[in-house]
Amino acid sequence: MSSRSIYRTLRPVLSSSVLSSGLGTGHGIKGHIISHLPTIRFLSSDTSSSATVNSQPEIPVRTADGKVISTYWGIPPTKITKPDGSAWKWNCFQPWDSYKPDVSIDVTKHHKPSNYTDKFAYWTVQTLKIPVQLFFQRKHMCHAMLLETVAAVPGMVGGMLLHLKSLRRFEHSGGWIKALLEEAENERMHLMTFIELSQPKWYERAIVFAVQGVFFNAYFLSYVISPKLAHRITGYLEEEAVNSYTEFLNDIDAGKFENSPAPAIAIDYWRLPKDAKLRDVVFVIRADEAHHRDINHYASDIQFQGHELKEAPAPIGYH
Catalytic activity annotated for this protein (predicted)? Predict the structure, then answer.
């Protein structure tokens, strides 16, 4: 039977009126198709085609600012509520993505450079720190926003390259893809929190644009050439992040920076008390950075000992 004959045979039985009449119970091709495919589109995916007989109803989707997106392909938004019954307002993360961080982690730990690669990584980070400190000095909020736009890059680059490696070699990653992408997402949530408190000026956005472009490409090349070096650099970057947030906390405690109320996104993401303050937010972010420090130094140590990351258990969900 030709494709045109098949189409003519199937088209009548795809309308809702014929489906409800029980024609799908007969013998032959019509009976088999209908029993498995209640709705089928043929020949074209053009949603505006007048030839579509069994068109789906449009599902309106409402954006955060109240605008309605009406589309054939609209997927009904998930309705999620908090334990108290109130609506979940965030699209960038879900309740199961939130967590209570381990703030007991040692924030003073430091990996002492013991070989040439370690020393190269350490002094690279120390050199990059100089212009940053000269520019931002004690402007903690601006410094934090720039820091997070950079800190979210290594996890994404590492996860992406491990993903491609896993595909090329037809092998598992040992969970490290997920662990590194979790790190990148966590760093991005730090940034999403800070922009609730302060908006960067135009020249700060320009700096971020330039720094991100340079850093992404440089880190990409370093990870391709030597993943253990790349992870060591990230470990030292995270050490500096911990130090920066410690200075931020000290200035809040000294009254040099206003301890304003924590933004709602931070309260939901880190499961903070409703009356949480900025200090509470910076405190948990510092703990996050300390965990990222440990993950990257751990990853570098694994490879320095001649192993691949997949051979060691990935610290998934290490908060």
Answer: 2 a ubiquinol + O2 = 2 a ubiquinone + 2 H2O
- CA distances from residue 248 to 9, 46, 75, 262, 304 in whole angstroms, order as listed: 72, 55, 43, 15, 34
Tokens at 21, concatenated? 């009449």
Mean per-residue pLDDT over the chain, rounded: 81
How crowded is the C-beta side of 154, counted as CA atoms within 13 Å?
28
| Amino acid at the residue 193 | T
SS3 annotation, 185-251: HHHHHHHHHHCCCCCCCHHHHHHHHHHHHHHHHHHHHHHHHCHHHHHHHHHHHHHHHHHHHHHHHHH
Position 13 pLDDT exceeds 50: no
Listing DSSP states for 121-187 in one string gives HHHHHHHHHHHHHHHHTT-HHHHHHHHHHHHHHHHHHHHHHHHHHHHHHT---TTHHHHHHHHHHHH
The pair phi, psi for residue 139, each rounded to 5°, is -85, 80
Of the listed ranges 86-95, 146-155, 247-256, the least confidently predicted one is 86-95
Band (71; pLDDT cuts 50, 70, 90): low
For the range 59-65, what are the long-range contacts, defined as Cβ-Cβ under 8 Å and sequence gap of 24 or more? 64/91
Band of the pLDDT at 51, cuts 50, 70, 90? very low
- pTM comes to 0.77
CA distance 216 to 154: 8
CA 172, CA 310: separation in Å to the nearest integer? 7
| Rounded-to-integer distance, Cα 155 and Cα 234, Å | 9
- Contact at 8 Å (CB) between 256 and 138? yes
Length of the chain: 319
What is the per-residue pLDDT for 56?
A: 53
Enter the tokens of residue 41: 């589109």
Using CA atoms, how far apart are residues 43 and 212, in angstroms rounded to an integer? 45
